[in-house]
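Assess the record.
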Amino acid sequence: MSISSASGWGASRVERVVETVLPTRYGVFRMVGYRDAQDNEHVALVCGDIESTVPLVRVHSECLTGDALGSYRCDCGEQLDASLQRISEEGTGVVIYVRGHEGRGIGLLEKLRAYALQDQGVDTVDANTSLGLPVDARDYQQSIEILLGLGITRIRLLSSNPAKQEALESGGITVAARSGLNIAQRPENASYIATKRARMRHDGEPAQDVWRQLTEGVVPRGSVHGLAAELLTRYGPLVEAVRPDGRLVIGQLGQSLDGFIASRTGDAQFVTGSEDREHLHRLRALVDAVVIGASTVTSDDCLLTVRAVDGPNPVRAVLDPQARIPRGSAVLTDGAAPTLWLVGSDAVVPTALAAHVSVRRLPDGDFEPHRILDLLSDLGHPRVLVEGGGHTVSRFLEAGELDRLYLTCAPILVGDGVPGIRFTGSDSLSGALSAPVRRFEFGRDICTEFDFSAAVPAPVA
């Protein structure tokens, strides 16, 4: 079966040959095999219902050394693993594995010859040109035709390469968003990655530099593009939006469309997708302390550290009047970040605690939101993220202590479970809580940012 060609590319050169099922360590994928006019064989690994959403797509160029042999000279194998993991977590997406792209299209043996020159200090671009080879000989027509054949015309591209986006768009594929995969750099591939960024327009340094400055409390000025501009637009206002006393209080919650953060059994793995979790880690990196209730620690055993992005770990402030969280909880045993265990005056705590844990006893009345924020500010933590669970975030919201609330809704219906935002509302809709908002697409999820610091009080009825 031939696949319709993209407009402007001429006759289709890709044939769909076979379809099967491939169980992997990342989950079960539908695997579709193709052959092109050059007799190259390609596969598409399809996860979930790709027609009802804008799917994540990774167009992955074949790399024997990285994908199969685990080479550290490049990051290809890790990019492939991360793509499959992220798509599996989200539940929908496609990885197109493109054969004939070895060494950016120059072939395996020529790539090894280029490696030999790189061993002498030549970068990846000059190594290719010194051999009389193109810097990048890849053609993405097969990927365009595969996507169109799968009924996909609009995607979210997993790539740091703007040229890949441009090639797909020239063939009729709309790239609604493009993002990298946050693969950690290794000493063995640092030069390879630096060359891609400096000489091949890959994302990296501008976005990393913008993010680093934001975590340092600086909003960079000047023109930026791509991921750097997205980070600046989304998080720059948080760096600048502090109260006169230096405080900033953010609430964050992920819930189903019908307002639940977990099922009736407490299962919350995972309500929202990987892009929302990355957003959460960025929020953690921008604050001094993260506040969480005892119930969430007990049910989720969360680390509350920054792992999906670069950035400092906040202090973990656990609200636990009765000191009831399990003694083996990660916040008490993992020393990656300090933990401030806030307990009641008469609560019983272990005599021996890890060095990163400090206990502060509070009278019952001191667990009110404004008193918690006063305490954290006095301890040098004026920028606070109230992360969970729903009861804790709702208490701070109802007390009027949140400057901003990020509420991410996943397109699922739980029916009954652990509620998200709940507070004593108004008898009339005219008194409903509102504020200026911004909205962000995190894959299938929609995040709404409420800016309560800019809210205008509702008129008195």
